[in-house]
Amino acid sequence: MALLSIHNYLTTYLVFGAMLFSLGIYGLVTRKTLIGMLIAAELMLAGVSINFMAFNRFLAPDPSIGQIFTLFIMAIAAAEAAIGLSIVVAVYRHYKTVDAEELVNLKG
Amino acid sequence: MTPVPSPELFSADGMAGLIFLIMIGVTLAGGFIAATAERLVRALSGIVICFTGVAGFYYFLNSPFMAMMQILIYVGAICVTISFAIMLAAPEQQLKSSPSNLLSGPLGFMIAALIFGGMSALALTTEWQASPKTASGSVREIGIHLLTTYSMIFELISIVLLIAIIGAIVIARGGRN
Prior knowledge:
The complex is a heterodimer.
Chain A: H1 10-30, H2 34-58, H3 63-95
Helix pairs in contact in A: 1-2, 2-3
Chain B: H1 12-36, H2 40-60, H3 64-89, H4 106-125, H5 139-147, H6 151-173
Helix pairs in contact in B: 1-2, 2-3
């Protein structure tokens, strides 16, 4: 597999999507603030979308299905970001912090 | 998968390959910044770089429409929303404090590395079966599918987005009189 033609192979995109996904998981478990966690979750969604688009391009019989699915993922991600960020703003107004370690009101 | 012969560097295919390699580097650097930068604003600019690179990937995957949507929705809408949230709800620059959490040390890195290793090993060892193409996947076909086969999901997504917008306004303005 020559280096200059790797964009013609399915595995390149799959490995790259896995890389973005695991970067997102790393950010999700190491971040301390809620906004940082949200950014990491968006990174994971980008990795998943790349997987869908790669399978759509190389394997699927009808290449418009995967694009529609990725479009729906984007719409759900937009809704998730809007709701998540409004919750972050509400939490900040109530507790004066967005640190996940300090939001322990429900802890027994 | 049929092997593709290696192109010359100074040909159209070779330049496309070179651009693809640069794009992989830039996108990974952006993702790395987004996951590890100490300041949230830097993480945000990292994810902007990463999303722009992902749009380039979509272009290489024969879908300029999705590339435009990626830039429009992710870079144009979601990242701007996150930047507003950072301005509204991150008063002092929260630096990463000492790892008091069990997961936020080498253990978190190990989990991520394990998942990456497992998934890429799966991707590299599986024999993927390609099925013959029955359509071209053009924007026209996407539009026809969206308004015929998937019209129900299309309407549902619109309602979900509407409810999300209304819910975001209601949640965020509570407590203000």
